[in-house]
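cron nightly-structures :: item 1 of 1
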Amino acid sequence: MTLSLESTLVLHVCAIVSAYLFFVDKREIPRPLQILTAAAFVTSPVVVLERGAQSAVYLTDILIPLIICVYARHMRMSEVIHDGRVLAFLVLLLGVPFFVGTLGFVLGGADVSLLSRSTNATVLWLYRNACGILVFMLAISMRLTVSQVIAWIRMNLILVLVIAGAGVVTYLTPIDLAAFERIMPEVDPERLEHIDETRIGTGFLGLFRGSVGQWFGIQVVLLLGLLPVLERRQWPWALVGIVLSVAVVLMSYSRAGVIGMAVGILALSVFGQGWHQRSYGVFGAMLVVIIGFTQLDMIGDRLESIFTQGDRASAGRIIAWERSLNVFAIEPETFAIGVGPTNRQAVFKLIGAYGAHNEYIDAIFRMGVLGPIAILVVLYKLMSSYWKLRGSGEAEVSYLGSTMVAVTIANAVIGLTQANLLHDYSGYTCWLFMYLLYGVTTSTTMAIMPVVQPAQTDANGDLSRLGHVA
């Protein structure tokens, strides 16, 4: 039974709203954060303006500006705008694209600038970049306490159960919630034939395979890492969430998802605090054994194909990497300024594919050599924040920091196989959730930092007290 896009959206919204109203403890979570999080989990498109995934409009496209306008007065803009993490995201998502796009227009004309693609596509890309920054800024400005972050993690867990459960239903039952995948045949005609045979190996609810892999692979790392800070009565639900997340990652056949889980679990074992987190290497080994004994050859083949030419798709990936490096070697101007932030057609002409399936290489095509440098600066800023949390003497803060260190490392490695910090249309909803996750968890860094109050004077104009730490 295949549900239409409209029916899928209605069912999706009803499930999220019901979970939010009846199962989420909302007492500690600020209202705008509740709304943003619930909206981010509505991954089904509200409308597809034209045939094709690039014209899909999501609920967050509509809600984010409204939420920001309503709650802007609470954002402490003068304080947040000078935060190094916010500046790093601004440079990556808006500063470098505008600078390189303008430079490309001056040196090479419209073909290597922001005008190199249709105006609608470019405006939408920049609009969503701005939305991602605003989401991060709103979350970080809330100065959430650790207990508030944990309450948000619990909300995230409830919604993960809903969405991962929908994925299992899609993959294992006659109910088809992968309707969005059906708008792609004109790009990949074999996709529709595959969905008619089996939905395993596809995405669902507006999430493409790569998004399913990254989103739920990271959820496995997040829930495993923060299991010690959850109440014991919540552990069974967290374990169900972990099992469902592993299931949808495996059934989506996502390289990125399996790599993200493996690297994240390994990072938890290395950088974790306490025996809980450091023992997760055993969990990772068990997962490998399960894959081996259940003879999931497709998973093994796709893992092997990441750095080999085991199948047609992976062969195209490796060839795209090689061709990209050759282009950068013989065309220094492309290496310097790229071909335009959204110019996928130019990339196709150069390497025979619309992207290299490697964020660091694709960033060079988008923004020249400044692209991967800006990505590395963002990753450094995030890692620095989480490393400080990891070193806290408070157990809950330390567990949060070490978990997010592992998440950041996993996402950085995922960037070797697909987009991470620089979204494209197929990964937009997953990308937005990651920015929300980064904002929520780094806002704790600001909350535990001392705030120096300005010196005050008494009625006679004399200093009544020195600036002190509040």
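cron nightly-structures :: done
Confidence is low (pLDDT under 50) at residues 449-470.
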